[in-house]
Specification:
The protein is mainly beta. It is 13% helix and 51% strand.
């Protein structure tokens, strides 16, 4: 389910807002992959920064797609899931 939400947001270039632990994250989603331990992660640029970070799926909750704002990618977007 999370993968479908993330892929749709990547294709439409919509921002995401979600809770990661206790922190609220605003993200421009770029890429879905698996980390070295085999856990699914999403990479993206934190809104209003130049920082690219990864977030583990199992720590993400309350996902909201922000459709009123579209971003222009700073790195190529790859919208497939592993």
């Amino acid at each position: 389910m999370k993968t479908d939400i993330f892929i749709k947001a990547m294709r439409k270039r919509n921002n995401l807002r979600f809770l990661y632990g206790l922190q609220e994250i605003n993200l421009e989603p770029y890429y879905i992959a698996k980390n070295k331990s085999g856990k699914k992660v999403i990479y993206g640029r934190l809104r209003n920064t130049n920082e690219i970070r990864k977030f583990e799926y199992d720590k993400i909750a309350n996902i909201r797609v922000i459709e009123s704002f579209r971003f222009s990618p700073r790195i190529p977007i790859n919208s497939f899931a592993v």
